[in-house]
Amino acid sequence: MCGIIGYVGARPCRDILFNGLRKLEYRGYDSAGISVLREGSFSLVRAVGNLDSLEALLDTVDDKASVGIAHTRWATHGVPSERNAHPHTDCSGRFAIVVNGIVENYLRLRAELVEEGHVFSSDTDAEVVAHLLERHYRGSFLSALRDAYAELQGHFTIVAMSRADPELILAVRKETPLVLGLGEGENFAASSVAAFMSHTRVAVFPRSGEFAEIRRHGIELYDEQGNPVAFEGHVVDWDEDAAEKGGFETFMLKEIYEQPTALVDTLAERVGPDGLVRLDGMGLQDELFRDASQIVIVACGTSYHAGLLGKYALERWARLPVEIDVASEFRYRDPVLDERTICIAITQSGETADTLAAMRVARHSGAHVLVVTNILGSQATREADGVLFTRAGLEIGVAATKTLLAQFLVLLLLALHVARVRGKLDEDTVIRTVNELRSVPASLARLLAGEAPAQLQELAQRYRGSPFFLYMGRNVGLPVCLEGALKLKEISYVPAESYAAGEMKHGPIALLTHGSPVVAVATDGRTYEKLVSNMQEVRARGAHVLAVASEGNEGIREVADHVVYVPATSEMVSPLLAVVPLQLFAYHVAQANGEKVDQPRNLAKTVTVE
Ligand code: G6P
């Protein structure tokens, strides 16, 4: 949601900013704008719609300025329009600002400012920031921002310029993302490393409430009292090609094909010479898991589906009670937690507002919080007691794919480790299962290089006009189905429901008519026969069954209309393979229907508001 980039350097920055916005498109947006500063005046342009609309106006922006800020907006307060797009300025025209997030007390602040004579030119919450700077300015830009910040409630990142300080941009964050890029004679502020990765790989992650003064030759950080704060740069090892499509027609397809690599990278250094799981640097001691009374998992969206698999694995292998909830419910429902509770928060971005809030609820109740995330330096990593990184690389497609697979893997590794620590699985079983996990990237590469992708494309063509899809599965097949249905909804806008197959008779089966497509995840496992009965029941009502099954299972052809095979594995490992055909199916339905797969309507990659 909302993307920001700011630049101070020696080079003309208009195009640097615009290209930075292109790299932030994946976050989701509906309007965009740029402002650059030269010789004491701003040159500003904003446009509704995608970046092509802004690009068409770019010629009107000063192309010599070497200080500037830019923004992609995902509307919350005020419709998508030119006047609501950022940057915003104050009445005096001294300041230009961009904001990501929400200023929660903006109505009161706006009323006060209007009373004082300020004239607003947008319906946004963000514009109050520009007028607050004007209110507090006494000659020091930094002091004005500090005083403005002190009045603001909510979660937001601000990047600002002042005509009186022509070689400076200021930035501050309150919980939403901000990363600074340290270049050679130029520096950056952005919502994500992706925005400046082609210029520098050295990133600084300021804490919430730290103010950054960004100049051409350096960056300074100050706390809320104005004291300097020490910081260090982290070298980001993401592949620069991650922000390019590399020959694929969309980022999502590229990322589906990157999944074997994401698994290999996530596994690296997680297996010791003894073949056991190594979770060095996790930050939570084994004793905590040994003595834990329960685990609670919190997450949103696709990460929640990863959490469901984590629950099955931790319960089966580690014999620990596991509860799971979507973060937006968990945070408001007074969950019963104590210091023997371990809360696992799963968030690829590390910035999802509800997940962060759920982590705070857990910590407040004395629970220990472990976060599983893909983003170094993200807010979740700062607030957790321990961190397990997935190493999926930069994911641009709004619909998560490779980050999910990496989350599945990390959670299985964690469950194996906890099971061994608690004496519930012997070493041989752990070593055998770890070995199986190590073989998955090759199996997945084989799946992606085989017949399945073309078969799924054909099936998508055949069923693309269906008004409704039902997904059903049991046990670890259920999270896979939930994810498959979510992918379809997200990118193809086709209604899809996912149900535990045992629940079909309690409602969903009533939806089926002749030819209704039902996707069944029917890989080998303890509930396979039960699922076959459910497949027969839906077929008896005229539905067409598209089954995902384990290679070698020829018998399933008798109860399914179409079968997509995935390499056979043990049950708990099977979701790593079974979910991929469902990603591809959703992808091809969306493509066949001409939808914009990488930027689905109304959705954002990183949901930094509640
Ligand atoms: C958004 C994204 C989803 C993602 C969810 C949770 O809705 O579009 O792809 O699964 O947020 O994000 P997180 O970063 O917390 O995993």
- Low-pLDDT runs of 5+ residues are none
Terminus-to-terminus distance: 12 Å
Cα radius of gyration in angstroms: 25 Å
Name of the CATH architecture of the largest domain: 4-Layer Sandwich
Helix percentage: 25-40%
Strand order of the largest sheet: 3-2-4-1-10-9-11-15
Strand content: 15-25%
Largest sheet: 8 strands, antiparallel
Mean pLDDT: 95
Task: Provide a descriptive summary of the structure in words.
Helix content is 35%, strand content 23%. The protein has 18 helices and 25 strands. The protein has an 8-stranded antiparallel beta sheet with strand order 3-2-4-1-10-9-11-15, with helices on one face. A 7-stranded antiparallel beta sheet has the order 5-6-7-8-12-13-14. It is globular, with a radius of gyration of 25 Å. The longest helix has 23 residues, at 427-449. Helix 9 (301-318) runs parallel beside helix 13 (402-421) and helix 15 (452-463) crosses helix 18 (575-592). The protein has 3 domains: 3-243, 4-Layer Sandwich (Glutamine Phosphoribosylpyrophosphate, subunit 1, domain 1), CATH 3.60.20.10; 251-447, Glucose-6-phosphate isomerase like protein, domain 1 (Rossmann fold), CATH 3.40.50; 452-592, Glucose-6-phosphate isomerase like protein, domain 1 (Rossmann fold), CATH 3.40.50.10490. With 610 residues, the chain is of the alpha/beta class. Bound molecules: 6-O-phosphono-alpha-D-glucopyranose. 6-O-phosphono-alpha-D-glucopyranose is lined by residues 300-303, 347-349, 352, 355, 398-400, 603, 605-607.
